[in-house]
Design a protein that fits this description.
alpha/beta; 7 helices; 9 strands; 31% helix
């Protein structure tokens, strides 16, 4: 049994230790000077622009018009991470998890893919997501979180004046905090508000402007159209990968990718099929 004096000393020592964690220091006292190694997404274009891939603490937004392939792009990244022994926790609000499993199997993933998910999604409340993320980190060593998509996430209304967009801003800020505090990468899918087929920009993201302002990277996938047999414009097997924001080094750009055999390829390997992805 500890004496009161010993308990008091331990408490005081802990207090001093905590104060030490938050004291002001000169930059030279920070030991780490090198850029942390990125986790390659498996797409050379993205990984080159990001100097190796996504890193812990990063919040990346993947967006595009409905049916242009943002969910498939995310799943292909998950498959690529698994091949590197990097476990991913996915929250799929748009599609049932059995269909996600089927999509991954169509991509060539086997049952041992390092992709984890809650059995059921209790809610889209960010506090519940954080609880499950901590659970995944503790039990499965989760390094990457994939959320599909932002529209399904909720948070408590703090003020009567809170509107949908102010709540959404708080949600994105909370996800960014979770990524930094837990040293994980978060990939968040989001819709665009535009309806025409022109190439999307950051300002076209649906909802609060803080969605792209708080993100480290904003990536769009935009499926192109070509002339069909009857002269009408039809969706092609080609898409543009567009890096619109890169907080790491500012390097942005566009790369054409090709969809065939349920996968995106960075080189043209033949004609794909004319069907929505």
């Amino acid at each position: 049994i500890m004496l009161k004096s010993e308990i008091k000393k331990l408490s005081t020592d802990f207090g001093k230790e905590e104060e030490n964690d938050y004291k002001i220091i000169q930059l030279k006292e920070i030991k780490e000077t090198k850029l942390a190694k990125g986790k390659p997404t498996g797409f050379n274009f993205i990984d080159e622009k990001l100097q190796g891939g996504l890193r812990e603490g990063d919040l990346a937004i993947i967006s595009g018009l409905s049916g242009n392939g943002k969910s498939l792009l995310t799943l292909q990244m998950i498959k690529n991470y698994s091949a590197q022994k990097i476990p991913v926790l996915i929250f799929s609000f748009e599609e049932p998890i059995d269909r996600i499993k089927w999509r991954l199997s169509e991509m060539g993933a086997d049952d041992n893919i390092l992709c984890f998910t809650p059995k059921k999604l209790k809610s889209g409340h960010v506090s519940w997501l954080e609880e499950k993320i901590l659970d995944g980190i503790s039990h499965y060593g989760i390094k990457v979180i994939a959320i599909d998509n932002l529209d399904f996430l909720t948070a408590e209304r703090k003020l009567n004046s809170d509107d949908k967009w102010s709540i959404q801003s708080r949600i994105v800020a909370m996800l960014k905090r979770v990524s930094i505090e837990n040293k994980i990468t978060i990939i968040l899918n989001a819709h665009v508000k535009k309806l025409d087929n022109t190439q999307p920009k950051m300002e076209d993201l649906y909802g609060s402007g803080d969605t792209y302002k708080l993100a480290d990277f904003v990536l769009f996938i935009h499926r192109t159209r070509e002339e069909g047999v009857s002269g009408e414009k039809v969706l092609s097997n080609k898409s543009n990968l567009i890096i619109e924001k890169n907080r790491l080094n500012g390097m942005c750009g566009v790369q054409t990718i090709y969809f065939r055999d349920n996968l995106f390829h960075e080189e043209d390997i033949g004609d794909g099929w004319q069907k929505d992805v």
